[in-house]
Amino acid sequence: MDLRKIENLIQVADYGSFSKAASVIGVAQSALGRQVRKLEEECGCPLLYRNGRGVSLTPEGEKLLDRLRPLLRQMDAVVSAFHDDQRSPSGQVTVGLTPTLCKMIGMRLIADLWQKHPRIQLNIVTGYSGYVHEWLTNARVDIAVLHDARRSQHLVVDPLAELRLALVSPRQALSPSARRLTEIDVKQLQGLPLVLPTKNHGLRRTVEYAASQAGATLDVVFEVDALDLMNDIVVRGMAHTVLAAPAFQAELTAGTVVARTLVNPGVSTKLMLATASSRPLTQAVKVVHETLRDLMREMASSPAHGGYLSLAQPTAT
């Protein structure tokens, strides 16, 4: 049954006249009459009484419209809700962030979405890149920021930014001249007691590869996959670590640690926006995806972050 015919029948019944309904709908009266007659043939009974003063519904017509009007209202509501979702997406989106990224943009992401897209319910979970990768694959998160992730049959990744890494040292372990340095060669990691993530995480592999390139052997005395505990170990003077400086922003501000950018070779980690290839992106996930990208662009262009953060160049697929 053609919904347009039903809607036109309702107009004729409401106005009590073919001519008035045709004028409102914007069709010829003869065409409107043919539509109603076709509908009556499909139903197998007359739906309108026709007389010189106009038209009115037959009992069968009344029964038909009583049943169809609620369905039409429901259809209108569905279409209206769909349009609302396009203009103002809604739904739950779970984002996986590494601890450093959570410190850098977690609060800003929440605030931005809360202000601009209040119908999106944002959940943030945090863990090192290896864990977040697993959560994405297992559908625990909808979108993630991963370190040095590669496109695969399970993941769709887009380059987001490049984060330069630094040697973060307890202030009391350095001489005054060392504290004034802003850079340090990777080969000088040789012999330093280090606290690093466990070996199944991208940052650890990045640091070990840079050390091998520089001919340095790492002395990892603590393997820790908890950023707060890693910070405490460094602040207490028990070890140094290699991370992006923002992970220690509070400690750097307080002056309890010193961060020196690693050079020769420079050491950085590529941040990738990742989604699961097997799951379609909802409108809400697309909004979060673009918001993450916008926030990273804004931070990379800020002088406060320009020393360690730069936008990644798109890679050919």
Features:
four-stranded mixed beta sheet; six-stranded mixed beta sheet; rod-shaped; 45% helix; D-Maltodextrin-Binding Protein, domain 2; Arc Repressor Mutant, subunit A; 317 residues
User: How many structural domains are formed by the residues?
Assistant: 3
Topology as a string of helices (H) and strands (E): HHHEEHEHEHEEEHEEHEHEHEEHE
Main beta-sheet strand count, sense and barrel state: 6 strands, mixed
Tally of helical segments: 11
Q: What is the SS-derived class?
A: alpha/beta
Strand order of the largest sheet: 4-3-5-13-6-14
Helix content: 40-55%
User: Strand content of the residues, in percent?
Assistant: 15-25%
CATH architecture of the largest domain: 3-Layer(aba) Sandwich
Shape, per Cα inertia axes: rod-shaped
> What is the CATH C-level name of the largest domain?
Alpha Beta
CATH superfamily of the largest domain: Periplasmic binding protein-like II
| Radius of gyration using CA atoms only | 32 Å
Assign the CATH topology of the largest domain.
Answer: D-Maltodextrin-Binding Protein, domain 2
Termini, distance in Å?
47 Å
Number of strands: 14
Description:
The protein has 317 residues and is α/β, with parallel strands linked by helices. It contains eleven helices and 14 strands. The strands form four sheets. It has a six-stranded mixed sheet with strand order 4-3-5-13-6-14, with helices on both faces. A four-stranded mixed sheet has the order 8-12-7-11. The protein has a two-stranded antiparallel ribbon with strand order 1-2. The longest helix has 29 residues, at 59-87. The two termini are 47 Å apart.
